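Throughout our pipeline, every protein is held as a single compact record rather than as scattered files. Such a record has a labelled line for the sequence and another for the backbone structure tokens. The remainder of this section carries one protein's record, kept here as part of the documentation:
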Amino acid sequence: MFPMTKPLSVLFVSSEVYPFAKTGGLADVAYSLPLALRDLGHDIRVMLPKYGSISERKNKIHEINRLKDIPIPVGDAVSLATVKSSSMANPRTKVQAYVTTNTNYLDAYKGFYADPVTGIDYENNDERFIFFNKTVLQTCLLLGWFPDIIHCNDWQTGLIPALVREVYPEEFKNTKIIYTIHNFGNQGSFPAESIAKVGLPESALESITHNGRLNFMKAGIVHADRLSTVSPTYCGEVLAGSGLSDGLDDLLKTSPEKMMGILHGVDMMTWNPAIDASIAKKYTAETLTNKIPNKEALLKRSGLPVRLDIPIIGMIGRLNEQKGVELILEAAERLFAEDIHFVLLGDGEQEMKQKFAELAERYPHKASVTLGFDDDLAHLIEAGADMYLMPSLFEPCGLNQQYSLVYGTVPIVRSTGGLKDTVFEYNEETGEGNGFVFNEFSADAMLDAIHRALQLYRQRDIWLQMVKQGMKEDHSWGNAARQYSEMYRSIMKDLE
């Protein structure tokens, strides 16, 4: 590890940050990682857009006099940005958050990327995030603050590295850029007419264009000093040309040394059954009997028969192809022939939501489906379920399997990405392992893993031993924060 000679200044940019805006794990990362980096001594600030669904009053968002009505060109039009201030905190530390507001592009939209009712992407997402990317850099200019590191996340921030290198090379000459790709599945790809809206010189347009379209992610990959993704296995899968990078494989292969995988962690101030105020009763690995009231509370809230003798399989997440949810639909008849309860909390594509609503209607005494997102229910599922299912087609990192281990809820996962890095098949002979794993992406393979879990569940002493093993593992953000800190310092050495 590089010695902490002085704190580095870091601007962490994300399209969603808990508790302001959240659709998935990105928001959790954008909350937890900056706080963990602040604990290491770095001067870190966060920047995000303010969508219409974000309450300024609830989130204590305040004006900054010198960051009002900033003109931001997008194509031939100019819109005004006003950047406000808030903060993120845990009992140990606090991080300042800059929140970008704008009437036309941000405040007028309750959804982040898509209409919350129809699920259809907003047609002007290109302009909305071009606007946000430009505002980030204008904010630094107006503050006279040129951080050592700008840490960008996912496609929504991918143009920042290109703008820094092509528009503001002198102003940010001592700034290095990290670009973290959380999911290659969505690259911010827009029609050719979007390219001119960015306002880059002609010589730079190829670097932001892929297959004749504007591609935010390609811009980030080309112009960032270092790339990271969210688990070592996912990094290896992408560099191996597995098709997960959706056509950007060749670009990544040109400089594989530029990219590394860092497994994300768990915010133990938010996801920790010993202190979780959202669950029915707090517990630890030493007080596992206190998990039972959470199981009872989950069954009651889910409208399922209160039978504490049969296992609950929980699931939280997006209802889409990536998450492998079609395997559950395919296996439904065989799955619900078992003596189980199934509790799902999720949102996503309309067709898939309808199918899961129908599933709950077909098996009213075994399956409960809640559509949308409910943070309290998510915590109760982790605490009250006995097992947690993640049959993902691919999973860059995955946080819920780690939450499950912390909460003593045994994960059943497909061996891919971050799931492979965190969940290991339990071995009865050696007593090693913390869950159940299947390799083939099929309903049969998933059911086989579930059956192995159900069989062991009946062997209570062995089951409790496995549960305790998972709970005692270190899934905190400390290790990831140290790795990012080392990455920051390694690229800053280039300026020495």
